[in-house]
Amino acid sequence: MNFVTIDFETAEYSQESACAIGLVKFLGGKPADKYYSLICPPGLYIRPDFTDIHGLTIEDVKDAPSFDKIWNEIKAFYGDLPLAAHNAAFDMGVMRAVLKWYEIENPKFKYFCTCKLAKNVWPHLSSHSLPKLARHFELKYNAHNALDDALTCGKLVIMAAEDYGCKSISELLKDARQKIEVL
């Protein structure tokens, strides 16, 4: 049960405006390492309504590195492990956009969506949003903090694997009728 969860926070609607990233490495079904960084977004602008969501301001990110300065750390952190994100279309869209913005070659990594996974594993729940799942399963959770979002996402993967009696990501995804995507 080895994988890395990822979450981005953005400064505005454009996907290259990443202003924070959180990654948690799960090895043997347990959190083994974490990575968090604020990111100085292009244009150094954060919409006030986005600050209302994640709490990050220009003051917080003005001295933070740009994405291209931390890319090698991020890439080394996840290595060859599959990435998991809640609403992966968003986070992988941000990843694709920042790689393109900084003209970094896309390394073609594997990922899966924990929101889709949750819908397949717990179809009886009325909502599969990360905050509602955390509340339902009584997980301590600070919504829209990139690191906490990533950690909570990983906890859901482990819970799903336990519910299905799976020992690996590939077994879990097969049993939950989901597949690994490639970006």
Radius of gyration: 16 Å
Return the string of H and E elements: EEEHHHEHEHHHHE
Total number of domains:
1
According to DSSP, the number of beta strands is 6
Shape: globular
N→C terminal distance: 21 Å
Number of discrete helical segments: 8
Q: What's the CATH class label?
A: Alpha Beta
Q: State the assembly state of the protein chains.
A: single chain
Q: How would you describe this structure to a colleague?
A:
The structure is a single chain. The protein is α/β, with parallel strands linked by helices. The chain has 8 helices and 6 strands, in the order βββαααβαβααααβ. The protein has one domain: 2-Layer Sandwich (Nucleotidyltransferase, domain 5), CATH 3.30.420. Helices cover 43% and strands 20% of the residues. Strands 3-2-1-4-5-6 form a 6-stranded mixed sheet, sandwiched between helices. Strand 1 and strand 2 (18-27) form a beta hairpin. The longest helix has 19 residues, at 146-164. It is globular. The two termini are 21 Å apart.
